[in-house]
Write the structure tokens for this entry.
Amino acid sequence: MNQEQRKKQIAILGSTGSIGTQALEVIAEHPDRFEARVLTANTRWQLLAEQARRFLPATVVIADEQHYDALAAALADLPIQVYTGSDALCQVVQSSEVDMVLTAMVGFAGLAPTIAAIRARKPIALANKETMVVAGELINRLCREYEVPILPVDSEHSAIFQSLIGEVSPIEKIILTASGGPFRTFSRQQLEDVTPAMALKHPNWDMGAKITIDSASMMNKGFEVIEAKWLFGVEPDRIQVVVHPQSVVHSAVQFADGAVKAQLGVPDMRVPIQLAFSFPERLQSSFDRLDWFTMHSLTFERPDTDRFHCLALAYEALQRGGNAPCIVNAANEIVNRAFLEGRCRFLQMADIIERTLDRATFIQTPTYEDYLQSDAEARRIAAEQILPLPSL
Ligand code: NDP
Ligand code: MG
């Protein structure tokens, strides 16, 4: 390691979330290499204040303006600039001091700050997959124009990225692994009655609520197919989802000669986060290692798109192209929240998304403004289909 190296200054958008807190653990493991320059949250101002006190960033942002006064008061004795509002997220990522932006916010809200960071030529450590789902084509165009790299944080895409290191030949096929979530073995009838509490118990990963529900419905895997298409330039018919309940093989790439390269490891998001920060180097870590002798079997299954229709809808959106993935994402954000709040049943989520996809205005070559409008329109159409339910 080069002792003279300047510490990489990292802006973490969404530092109070699952990815954000694990990113801070990575920074804490390597205080000689990384510094948290910017930390942001939406509402959890107390946790943001604790993080700021410990990591002493130059700037913090609380997106929800009603928590600004409390946060500013909590940090009044420290030399930390405190901002509020979603526009502030777009501004702070542009600071000349920021070397990399980790997009660990959840949902469509990640799109604008990611674009602002790309325009400011900041390398992106991409966790917020919704950005690629909604506007992958636009993001790729901007990354080319501003010569900005995207380092994937999503474990599957990090695995694919790692499998591609040193390769110059085209990809024959991507093997995108999926845990199958908590309902992998449930019948359709059992799926009728699953509750949010059941869906929130993911077998292998401890994640934020939104992505945990998306994993239970397999919409998360559908989104990852879309993310893989844009990150690696591979058409959807060459992206094979394979259910692998142990989550040890994080994904793989097959080449023209039939060789398959995969990346394996214990399920721990700190590994891909750290690699996104340090690439092309690999840094020492104290994280758990795979134990080959307690791992009794690795199994693989075909996904069932009848029971997990959201996965089929993501492929359908990719095939339609244009703003269709943006529509699916927006409808999904509405049904995901409604399911969590007990206002929509598990299997209804896919039905509502499908109807929204059929009803919302299709735009073949959307601009940024079109994405904003499509997102708003699809949210409205999806919300109209959610009726108040008697308690589940
Ligand atoms: P969490 O819900 O745990 O955290 C989300 C973070 O974003 C929090 O800091 C939250 O602030 C902030 N936030 C939420 N909404 C807004 C908003 N409107 N404006 C500004 N900030 C906002 O999510 P995860 O960490 O699980 O996921 C983050 C992203 O990473 C998602 O896109 C997810 O798909 C992706 N991802 C996550 C993985 C995981 O293991 N968790 C794995 C792979 C990808 P507050 O705390 O104040 O609410
Ligand atoms: Mg993933």
Observations:
- The pocket of NDP (ligand 1) is lined by residues 14-20, 41-44, 63, 86, 104-106, 109, 127-130, 154, 205, 207-208, 210-211, 269 (CB under 6 Å).
- Residues 157-320 form one domain.
- The chain is about 45% helix and 15% strand.
- The chain has two domains: 8-152, 157-320.
